[in-house]
């Protein structure tokens, strides 16, 4: 295989094109090939506007960069491909002088930038929430133990049966609150990674949810059976997916349809790291949808639309997925809610050979 003329540019996760003084493409890195759907081997000496058409201002900026030997930044740029595919990107234009190239164009997809920034904000918010809840749980759990112990002692001293009902309520409710505090304090175990098949995880989840649900619930499977194994903590992933599917079943009130779909995702950026492949799991239900007022905070601890719910299931699921370097996102409208999990497939030295 012919060696790349620019191996350092090949490694960049941002899309790079090198142009000569006539705006003919001299080189495209793999990220540009993936972003724009180009064939790198057929690009040399191709006019830029034959494969990527921008605004008139963009064309004038390119000519100005050549004439003045000065760099430019285009922060919001719309490019159109030959098949009318449209990309929203930012572009850095840098004059260069090597191997016949005159301009280096570096593109960043706007939705990818927004997604990375959103992931970072979510990560910081979740970390703050977890620490706050953990400290709060510690403070609450100790007095609860004292209240429960005092109620048990009082119960032994009471002779009137009607008064025992009150102590039973105190003991039962403090027990419930203690269990809630324990759940708040337990999701901090680090993953225990091992090779696993995502469909084993999903089949376990399917069995559990159907065992809990009423007769009116249907779970359909749409699996890509060619998905490779990946490294993960099986029990944590079972709990994460179970919380999401169980949440969908509860939204359906036990009567409706849930579809669990798996696919391979290519060239994804998760937590600012580019991965060649990731496992994508979609959990789709035909329920009423997530209320609009909860959509921006659905992953926050103690946020729930269900009476009697703890609001911990989705927060815990997000925590486990983030520990696997993955993400959870969702879209929701009446009749269709889809939670999408992306779990990176970490390449080993053996995989890369």
Structure report:
The protein has 353 residues and is α+β, with helices and mostly antiparallel strands. It has 2 domains: 7-111, PAS domain (Beta-Lactamase), CATH 3.30.450; 191-353, 2-Layer Sandwich (Heat Shock Protein 90), CATH 3.30.565.10. The protein has 10 helices and 13 strands. The strands form 3 sheets. It has a 6-stranded antiparallel beta sheet. A hairpin with a 2-residue loop joins strand 5 and strand 6 (101-109). The longest helix has 48 residues, at 110-157. The radius of gyration is 27 Å and the shape is elongated. The relative contact order is 0.09.
Features:
elongated, Heat Shock Protein 90, Beta-Lactamase, alpha+beta, disordered C terminus, 2 domains
Q: Total number of helical segments?
A: 10
**Average pLDDT:** 81
Q: What structural class do helix, strand and pairing data support?
A: alpha+beta
Order of helices and strands: HEEHEHHEEEHHEHEEHEEHEEH
If strands are numbered along the chain, what order do they take across the biggest sheet? 3-2-1-6-5-4
Q: Briefly, what CATH class of the largest domain?
A: Alpha Beta
Concise account of the structure shown:
By secondary structure, the protein is an alpha+beta fold. The protein is built from 10 helices and 13 strands.
Question: Helices and strands in order, then pairings?
Answer:
Blueprint: H1 7-10, E1 15-19, E2 24-28, H2 30-36, E3 46-47, H3 48-51, H4 56-68, E4 72-80, E5 86-98, E6 101-109, H5 110-157, H6 161-185, E7 194-196, H7 198-212, E8 217-222, E9 230-232, H8 234-251, E10 256-270, E11 273-285, H9 313-323, E12 327-333, E13 336-344, H10 349-352
Parallel strand pairs: 8-10
Antiparallel strand pairs: 1-2, 1-6, 2-3, 4-5, 5-6, 7-9, 10-11, 11-13, 12-13
């Amino acid at each position: 295989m012919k060696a790349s003329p620019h191996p350092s540019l090949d490694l960049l996760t941002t899309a790079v094109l090198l142009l000569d003084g006539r705006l003919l493409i001299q080189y495209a890195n793999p990220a540009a090939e993936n972003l724009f759907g180009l064939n790198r081997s057929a690009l040399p000496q191709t006019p830029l506007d034959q494969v990527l058409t921008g605004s008139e201002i963009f064309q004038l900026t390119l000519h100005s960069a050549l004439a003045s030997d000065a760099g430019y930044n285009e922060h919001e740029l719309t490019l159109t491909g030959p098949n009318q595919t449209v990309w929203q990107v930012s572009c850095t234009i840098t004059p260069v002088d090597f191997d016949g190239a005159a301009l280096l164009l570096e593109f960043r997809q706007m939705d990818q930038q927004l997604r990375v920034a959103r992931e970072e904000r979510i990560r910081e918010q979740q970390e703050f929430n977890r620490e706050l809840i953990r400290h709060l749980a510690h403070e609450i759990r100790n007095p609860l133990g004292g209240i429960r112990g005092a109620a048990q002692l009082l119960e032994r001293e009471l002779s009137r049966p009607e008064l025992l009902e009150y102590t039973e309520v105190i003991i039962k409710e403090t027990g419930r609150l203690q269990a809630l505090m324990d759940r708040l304090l337990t999701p901090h175990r680090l993953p225990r990674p091992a090779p696993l098949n995502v469909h084993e995880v999903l089949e376990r989840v399917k069995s559990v949810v159907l065992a809990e649900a009423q007769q009116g619930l249907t779970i359909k499977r749409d699996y890509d059976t060619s998905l490779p194994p990946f490294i993960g903590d099986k029990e944590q992933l079972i709990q994460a997916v179970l919380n999401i599917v169980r949440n969908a079943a509860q939204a359906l009130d036990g009567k409706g349809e849930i579809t669990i779909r798996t696919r391979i995702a290519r060239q994804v950026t998760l937590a600012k790291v580019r991965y060649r492949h990731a496992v994508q799991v979609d959990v789709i239900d035909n329920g009423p949808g997530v209320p609009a007022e909860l959509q921006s905070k659905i992953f926050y601890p103690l946020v729930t639309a269900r009476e009697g719910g703890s609001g911990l299931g989705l927060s815990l699921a997000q925590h486990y997925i983030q520990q696997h370097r993955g993400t959870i996102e969702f879209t929701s409208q009446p009749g269709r809610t889809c939670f999408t999990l992306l779990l990176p497939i970490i390449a080993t030295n053996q995989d890369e050979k």
